[in-house]
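Sample entry (296 residues):
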Amino acid sequence: MRAQKYRFPIVVIKSICLLLLLQQCAWIFGEKDPVDLVKPQPVGGYETLSARIHYPRSIREAGIEGTVIINALISVEGQVKQTRVIEPLYPELDQIVTNAIKRTPFEPATRQGKPEEVWISIPFIFAFNDWASKNTPFSSFSMTIHPDPAYKNFDVEIEGQIRDGLEWPLRFECLLPLNASNPWVKAGDDTTLPSGIVKDDKGEWLVFQISSSNLAFGFTYKSMDEVYDQKFLYEFTMNHALPDWALRVVYGSQTVNFTQAPDRMVTLNSGETQFEYDFKTQDPYESRYLDIELQK
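Predicted structure, serialized as tokens:
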């Protein structure tokens, strides 16, 4: 009878102890009361993050759709420090979402007005019915490559004309080659524009914004002599769909070998020769592998 009398108080005491233990464990593992926590948000909102995610044509044609969920650790500076795939869908799509999150700046979480480092969960749905191809903002686009006299370095200049009627500013991302240096961005009036480098698992991206109808950007490419002597190897990728566009290679008196025959060869007034290629429209983030070999 005495045991039954004290059974309920003992259960209550055990429950309280268990709650205290769970609270202690939560404190040990860094979990905090979510009250007063303002969660991180991508700069520009989740629509901006969504614009960095593409749905490759080959995967759509394979009939793959579904949801990817990524957990991301956002620092007090709004940078993505770590990512974890919590709900995978397909390896390439998992990587696409992960890389897009890594390239995204965030407004950091705050608690009572103070920045705080937190984990957040970000789902993204790949669905055939909701996907629409993105229109290119360019009316014209071209890339010109100038090798130096020693044929070891290549100055790369990319130019584009932006269509009318778009909202400014426009954000651009261009994947740089592994051995690129001195990246630059200029507006139509030759004014140097601010730019930054953002890394993900594919490499370094040149990131910038423009508010005018003309842009030009580029970098210096250094041939990797130990592996590819006098070669230009570049997997060219941008975040905006491209129109039909042209590649030009301007060179002097050396013999030039290409993995793909040029569409035209033009002699310039300077005496240099320009090889020209015509490329077809590209989807957002669709890579174009450029392989040029120079021989003296």
